Amino acid sequence: xxxxVIDVMPKPEIxxxxxxxxxGALPRLGFDLFTSVRQGRRFELEVEGDVTPEVLAxxxxxxxxxxxxxxxxxxxxxxxxxxxxxxxx
Amino acid sequence: xxxxVIDVMPKPEIxxxxxxxxxGALPRLGFDLFTSVRQGRRFELEVEGDVTPEVLAxxxxxxxxxxxxxxxxxxxxxxxxxxxxxxxx
Lengths: 89, 89
Known about the structure:
The structure is a homodimer of 89-residue chains.
Chain A: E1 2-10, H1 17-25, E2 34-47, H2 53-67, E3 73-80
Antiparallel strand pairs in A: 1-2, 1-3
């Protein structure tokens, strides 16, 4: 059984209110090293067999059509959880 | 400027309604290769200098205390975005 990991993050120019809330809360809890936080989403998709180039291509399409909102988010990574990144990434 | 990436996923035994919604929608859009989807969160934390072991240790603490809900989520990764994983991960 294979697994594909997809990472989706808010575009850099888009305000990220969840990240802002986190960066404001961190110093109040004693975490004083961080200057900026962005919060995005991570998906794990399982397939029956191995993670082939076809699987990665379909995962990339799904990421762009269903899993992300292209107006405000970027698909930053589509890769085999076992290690090999998408050839075209 | 360094960047730490933190991945948080729902625990395997916890129902993930967002993942269920995605896995139901995929075949309707023609994506027929995926048998299971889990949706979690990805954080990018920036620091002024390099990502030192101290930075990774504080990021790990922040991930467990603030960024995740330990009842329903696991912190699956805390790493330097530039490549090196947390020594203790």
